Amino acid sequence: VFKRDSYEHRATLTENKCAKDLWNLMARKKTNLCVAADVGTAKELIVLADKIGPEICILKTHCDLYPDFDDAFGATLLELAAKHDFMIFEDRKFADIGNTVVGQYSSGVHKIADWSHITNAHIVPGAGIIDGLKQVGLPKGRGLLLLAEMSSAGTMAKGQYTEDAIAMAAKHPDFVMGFISTRPSAWKGAWSRGLVQMTPGVQLGGGGDGLGQQYNTPDRVIKECGSDVIIVGRGIYKAADPVASAAEYRKAGWDAYVSAL
Ligand code: 5IU
Prior knowledge:
The chain is an alpha/beta fold. The chain is about 40% helix and about 15% strand. It has eleven helices and ten strands. The strands form two sheets. Strands 1-2-3-4-5-6-7-10 form an eight-stranded parallel barrel, surrounded by six helices. It has a two-stranded antiparallel sheet with strand order 8-9. The longest helix has 18 residues, at about 240-260. The chain binds 5-iodo-2'-deoxyuridine-5'-monophosphate. 5-iodo-2'-deoxyuridine-5'-monophosphate binds near residues 151, 180, 201, 234 and 235. Keywords: Decarboxylase, Glycosyltransferase, Lyase, Multifunctional enzyme, Pyrimidine biosynthesis, Transferase.
């Protein structure tokens, strides 16, 4: 078991507002479950978010998946986030130069910075992508996750690439709130302190999906891999009873965290 600090304590170690809010939310609500709501429409997403809201710390969206996305989307999700006490994470995976991501994050059809507390970015363009996103997000109190590792088979985000992501995060403690990672317990050097580790590719049965996704159990992700937040998609929204399934994942994730303290 990879032992670590409580969420309450880690809230005191970050300079990013979103990370502080998330650590405190997880401790208060006793959940480290993020649901990846990759459903077919915004309408379904909103129904799902209202049902599973009490179980989760984060609702993860892919706003370009929903054909019925409209200008009311953000406001509706923010209302649900306030009602159920969760945060919103648009999994946009920005990947362009700084100047371009300024527009993609603040403007366009989706205006992500207006409604999503958290978003994420590839570091393949270099640190300019962080500077660009920060120009938009920092004044709004947003947080950025860097993709240090991915859950898919054959990912190129490994070794030196992962180390470079860690070094870039260290240069932007006010805006970078953490990482998407799969095995941060194996990282060299200092532990992530106030930075949040979020891990996708989580399903109670393990296995994969035939398209490269690789699953670990919640217990393994938290206790062995050293993650802080489990990200679960199909394990919940494809279940016969998504609310019961969310409750089950929540318990598995929380029990694993408590036993890793
Ligand atoms: N996701 C991954 N792996 C990654 C990253 C994001 O699976 O490395 I970065 C997303 C894709 C999907 C969710 O939205 O996390 C996982 O969904 P399933 O639990 O349905 O596989």
